[in-house]
Amino acid sequence: MEIKSFSVPDRILMGPGPSNVHPRVLAAMAKPTIGHLDPAFIDLMDQIKLQLRYTFQTKNEVTFPVSGPGSVGMETCLVNLIEPGNKVAVCVNGVFGGRMREIISRCGGIPVVIDIPWGSAVDPQKFEDAFKENPGIKLSAFVHAETSTGARSDIKTLTEISHKYNCLAVADTVTSLGGIPVKTDEWDIDAVYSGSQKCLSCPPGLSPVSFNQRALDAIKNRKTKVQSWFMDIDLITSYWGSGSKRSYHHTAPINALYGLNEALLLLAEEGLENSWARHKENSDILIDGLKKLGLSTFVKDEDRLPELITVLVPDGIDEAKVRNKLLNDFNIEIGAGLGALAGKIWRIGLMGYTSNRGNINLCLEALSNALK
Ligand SMILES: *Cc1c(COP(=O)(O)O)cnc(C)c1O
Hints:
Blueprint: E1 12-13, H1 23-29, H2 39-56, E2 62-67, H3 70-81, E3 87-92, H4 95-106, E4 110-115, H5 124-133, E5 137-143, E6 145-146, E7 151-152, H6 155-164, E8 168-172, E9 191-193, E10 206-211, H7 213-220, H8 233-240, H9 254-270, H10 272-292, E11 308-312, H11 319-330, E12 332-333, E13 335-336, E14 345-349, H12 357-371
Parallel strand pairs: 1-12, 3-4, 3-5, 5-8, 8-9
Antiparallel strand pairs: 2-10, 6-7, 9-10, 11-14, 13-14
Helix pairs in contact: 1-9, 2-9, 5-6, 10-12, 11-12
The structure holds pyridoxal-5'-phosphate (PLP).
């Protein structure tokens, strides 16, 4: 094999993430690296924290990007809020709910699983039943936008139910942040995490998180140490916390943070409401076009996400062949189904910078061509 510089193919990323990165974000990341304790960098960190509060719609002081992909944000929320023996209600209606359940067990928690058919939103009644049948649940965990199925759950109601039973709530907003409303304070979610590479139009590798006072108090009152050194909120906030000494915890991914700052700035320039509206409009246009091709969507209208549309593979069609043709002939990446949905659906992402008319037209044209 000849070793050489990597030449990147010119792809349109219409899968479940990453989405296309805005050129301004790429340009920001190409700037020279500076020290992670440089006063100029500390200013940038403050700016990122402020911007994230807007993005998450929160006043939470502890709002910052964890160094690591969305899964690290997931683990950070869970590992800080679970002590061995704690009962944790976890909604599983796709791959990511399943991942939460696995992390809960590894933290020594006792998962109380609310199993929901893949492709459906979490049923609040089933969720509440779990609390009635299992007294003493300390924490609940659910996914806002299930990227493996394209279903959206009502996390405002799930949080309300959790609080009614004196239980804290953790929400996964990896694929929802920037694409559909996420109102952390208004919905009173205790801990929330996201990812940089979905609707934020940034490369993967950073996971914005936010903890409210209730969550921080619960962490302060832990009887056992957080099992993870790297993800211990107390230790990380010695670096990211306001008024902290900003002492060394780990070396922040400097250039990735330049990129996130620019991505958040782009979102603020557009305005969250406008971004939500753009995702919805473009999704409607795509679905219209899919229908004209004789294709139907997997998730029913009320539960369907605008930024990730799952499409049923018609009978007699080899789904992988279609995906390969899209990639090889049109440079378009779409996603395959996962787990039980493998071979049955495609996942078309219209996230962040990817969500525009030109991409939709190209994708429809490519699908029409490939299906012939
Ligand atoms: C992508 C995704 C994750 C995991 O993010 P990574 O950056 O791949 O670790 C978690 N939850 C949901 C809903 C996702 O879509």
